[in-house]
Structure to design on (299 residues):
């Protein structure tokens, strides 16, 4: 687990006889933004609720800084969580956030205002801090929910569909706030989305979920397709290369996609080529879109 802030290990969950999570595993480091990508009903929100301690799970475990949630259910108090926003509509945005900090045990008025001001400023709602929430638009409520999560997050921020229902300006505001918290405050961030473009815009790592199974878990830069021309193919090479997921297009043309190879990289393939006394004649690199990657990772 090492430097992981969050480590989800072999997570399984069923509702009655319907199994919705099948051995999900991934980790998140400090300053890392991880996008949990999947269609509606794939299991994303169930994963988030398990991490938040809002949902039990049947098998596997979840660790926060090497501590098991099973052993200490108070751990999620360290998290900033946006799953289902809840406000008192008859109060202002400022008063809603103040109540949240009071409930969290904060009583110093100066600290309370500093936290509220920083969070509302990040989501561009500071100028309407004294406006009652009942007069907020849907997008403003979404951003206020993010402000709640930002304000209470200590080392980990977790957001369920944070861009849902936002206009382009609202999306940019939320994306900038997430990136700021991760990169300037070294916070681990996990957010779910079914929108490929939103995930591609800001995440460092993608975890793809289809029908409750993890079909891809890796950095964005693994979404590349390499076509390699070599001078010859000696005995034994085809078997070893095939284990790495290499496809042979012709006698001397290979295709390799790290996103399909899981534990192997292009460096591993090149090392094998040179170990077998072969030479690379040419190599072409094609950047695959996240859409290509998502569509091909069928269960």
């Amino acid at each position: 687990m090492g430097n992981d802030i969050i480590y989800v290990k072999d997570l399984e969950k069923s509702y009655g006889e319907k199994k919705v999570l099948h051995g999900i595993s991934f980790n998140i480091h400090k300053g890392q933004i991880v996008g949990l990508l999947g269609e509606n009903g794939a299991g994303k929100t169930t994963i988030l609720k398990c991490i938040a301690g809002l949902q039990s799970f049947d098998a596997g475990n979840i660790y926060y800084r090497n501590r098991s949630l099973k052993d200490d259910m108070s751990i999620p108090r360290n998290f900033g969580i946006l799953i289902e926003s809840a406000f008192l509509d008859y109060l202002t945005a400022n008063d809603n956030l103040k109540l949240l900090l009071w409930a969290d045990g904060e009583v110093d008025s100066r600290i309370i205002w500093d936290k509220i001001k920083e969070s509302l400023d990040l989501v561009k709602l500071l100028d309407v801090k004294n406006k009652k929430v009942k007069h907020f638009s849907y997008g403003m409520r979404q951003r206020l929910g993010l402000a709640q999560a930002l304000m209470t997050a200590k080392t980990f921020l977790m957001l369920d569909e944070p861009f849902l229902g936002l206009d382009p300006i609202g999306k940019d505001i939320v994306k900038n706030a997430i990136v700021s918290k991760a990169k300037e405050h070294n916070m681990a961030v996990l957010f779910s989305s079914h929108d490929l473009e939103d995930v591609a815009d800001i995440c460092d790592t993608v975890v793809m979920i289809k029908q409750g199974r993890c079909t891809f878990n890796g950095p964005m830069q693994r979404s590349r397709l390499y076509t390699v021309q070599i001078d010859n193919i000696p005995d034994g090479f085809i078997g070893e290369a095939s284990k790495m997921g290499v496809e042979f297009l012709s006698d001397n043309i290979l295709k390799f996609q790290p996103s399909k190879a899981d534990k192997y990289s292009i460096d591993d393939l090149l090392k094998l080529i040179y170990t077998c006394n072969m030479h690379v004649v040419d190599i072409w690199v094609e950047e695959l879109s996240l859409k290509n990657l998502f569509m091909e990772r069928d269960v």
About this structure: The chain has two domains: 4-219, 223-296.
